[in-house]
Amino acid sequence: MKTHYKIAVLPGDGIGKEVIPEGLRVVKAAAQRFGIALELVEFDWASCDYYAQTGSMMPDNWKELLLPMDAIYFGAVGWPAIVADHISLWGSLLKFRREFDQYINLRPAQTFAGVRSPLAGRTAGDIDMLIVRENTEGEYSSVGGIMYEGTENEVVMQQSIFSRRGTERVMKFAFELAKTRARKHVTVATKSNGISISMPWWDARASEVASAYPDISWDKQHIDILCARFVLSPERFDVVVASNLFGDILSDLGPACTGTIGLAPSANLNPERRFPSLFEPVHGSAPDIYGKNIANPVAAIWSGAMMLDFLTNSKGAGHEAHDAILAAIKAVLISGPHTPDLGGKASTTDVGKAIAERLLA
Ligand code: GGG
């Protein structure tokens, strides 16, 4: 059993540089309280500033530097004034997900006391779902190209790729996760009426995997009506499993229905632990609010809690630290301070300090 964990810290771009210090403040406080030894190694790459200096998002030996780490704590990527978003994303975050086989992107969405949901009448506990996004293939594929570029015959194509291995493993993860939940239900996001080859195949893989889990109920829903139901009746969802793109959309929509995506954490997992897993807020770099110290740090802080939990296999000190951080977040969401996305006037730093103080009180 490990007692010492090495964490790579990559704040990245924009508000990533504001929320990660608050996440670290709370993670360090939790580590102190629960006796977890952390070695934090900060890097300034995987950022558009680094790209501006070097013409690349990361150094050539990035993999060598990250492989010895137990986890990666990441902020956000994207600064379109320096480099187009698809270059920065494919040059950093998507490299981590693919080359470290972080095939699960686990994204919880919950309503909390003290946070007003934009959906009428929803209060704490009404929404409580776990979105499982396939994270290494699907619509995020690098297979495609442009032909006859710049002519009147110009065409472009980009293939979606679904492998049997990739689809079965994400389905299995979702059904295993549902076993740990009270409602034990999996919803499979699909679009098998319109996307008539890969999505019926995706549904068939869901059906095969589901047959090994007789105690888990499940259904499949087309992505269009599923989005509508996230808004109209989000309380019906428990575990939702989706392809890379559908999962990305649902994991902004779900947290938005709870009040703000400023609360939404994520864990990019290599469940077998052959490679480091990566923990990051769902939100991006938000150039429009960067520099004002008003970004909500809760998503980054909660991601840090998920990291501690994962490091210790959801047992012992890391698990206790996770639960204590979540309790401190909940307390601060009730009594404040709140950042402007929650209707408050507090700064990113005020909220981080309040959660850390609550944790150590
Ligand atoms: N912290 C998350 C982040 O920086 N996201 C940037 C982004 O655009 N991500 C797209 C994706 O997760 O697929």
What does this structure look like?
The protein has 361 residues and is of the alpha/beta class. The protein has two domains: 1-102 and 271-361, Isopropylmalate Dehydrogenase (3-Layer(aba) Sandwich); 117-258, Isopropylmalate Dehydrogenase (3-Layer(aba) Sandwich), CATH 3.40.718.10. The protein has twelve helices and twelve strands. Strands 2-1-3-12-11-4-5-10-8-9 form a ten-stranded mixed sheet, with helices on both faces. The protein has a two-stranded antiparallel sheet with strand order 6-7. A hairpin with a 7-residue loop joins strand 11 (265-269) and strand 12 (277-281). The longest helix is centred in the C-terminal third of the chain and has 20 residues, at 316-335. The radius of gyration is 20 Å and the shape is globular. The two termini are 29 Å apart. The mean pLDDT is 97. The structure holds glycylglycylglycine (GGG). Glycylglycylglycine binds at residues 76-78, 89, 248, 280-281, 283-285. Belongs to the isocitrate and isopropylmalate dehydrogenases family. It is an enzyme of class 1 (oxidoreductase). Its cofactor is Mn(2+); Mg(2+). GO terms for molecular function: D-malate dehydrogenase (decarboxylating) (NAD+) activity; magnesium ion binding; NAD binding.
